[in-house]
Every structure is written in structure tokens, then in C-alpha cells.
Amino acid sequence: MALPTNKKKKIGSSVVMIGEVVAKQKPEIRFKVEIESQSK
User: Fold this and answer.
1) What is the structure's pLDDT at 1?
2) What integer pLDDT is reported at residue 8 of this predicted model?
3) Taking the model in full, what pTM does it have?
4) Sequence spans of domains, the chain
5) Could you tell me if 23 and 16 are in contact, meaning their C-beta atoms sit under 8 angstroms apart?
6) Could you tell me where the DSSP H helices lie in 1-40?
């Protein structure tokens, strides 16, 4: 069970990193990414 959790965590951090890059160009997307991060 530990392996899938670690995989999911890695994917989540990658999404946040991508979201931060996109956020520099589109602030409204950053708001959505932050809400999704808080719900996890």
C-alpha cells in the first residue's frame, strides 16, 4: 500500500510545480491549483 501513496505524492508535487509555472502566465489557474492542493 505504501508504494501507490508515494507515487501519488510525487505526481501531486509535479502538478503543483507545473501549476506554479503556469500561474506566472495565468493567475486564475494558480487560484484553482491552490484550492486543489488544500483539499488533499
Assistant:
1) 46
2) 61
3) 0.30
4) 2-39
5) no
6) 2-23, 27-39
